UniProtKB/TrEMBL annotation:
It comes from Branchiostoma belcheri. GO terms for cellular component: plasma membrane. This is Kremen protein 2-like. InterPro entries: Kremen_rcpt, WSC_carb-bd. It comes from the Eukaryota. It is found in: Membrane. The lineage of its organism: Eukaryota, Metazoa, Chordata, Cephalochordata, Leptocardii. Residues 1-20 form the signal peptide. Residues 20-116 form the WSC domain.
Length: 138
């Protein structure tokens, strides 16, 4: 029982650390449509992040011609992109679906967001842990 309570405390801490969608920044990347997992004439960052979260990917990137393309990224992909983090001013292409948001810049810059998929997995684990604790208490 003590282990379950300790695990619960760790899980609640992690849930506080993990966030939903959040901007990671502007990176040099391939905005090519061939690398895209989705495209839309009204693309916005949150739609791309939601799409990628459903695909189980922790990161999403928007960019390419007119900011129309969405790419879903793994932790490994982000590891390769990390050294290419760029100034936010380079991601200057307005998202076609929300002109106040930036969806990459030109063909060489992508706007990267965390999708919040890790937080969703932790919520699922928390629910399972609570059910297990209830079962042990009965």
């Amino acid at each position: 029982m003590a282990r379950i309570l300790a695990a619960s405390a760790v899980l609640f801490f992690l849930l506080g650390v993990a966030s939903a969608q959040s901007l990671k920044g502007c990176y040099v990347g391939d905005g090519d449509s061939a690398a895209a997992d989705a495209s839309s004439d009204d693309m916005i960052n949150s739609d791309c992040a939601e799409f990628c979260a459903k695909e189980g990917k922790p990161y999403s990137g928007t960019g390419g011609e007119g900011g129309r393309y969405c790419a879903c990224l793994t932790e490994e992909d982000m590891g390769m992109l990390a050294p290419t983090k760029s100034d936010a001013a380079n991601c200057d292409t307005p998202c076609p679906g929300k002109l106040e948001e930036m969806c990459g810049g030109g063909d060489n810059y992508v706007t990267i967001w965390s999708t919040g998929s890790a937080a969703k997995r932790m919520l699922s684990l928390r629910e399972k842990l609570q059910n297990l604790r209830r079962a042990l208490e009965d």
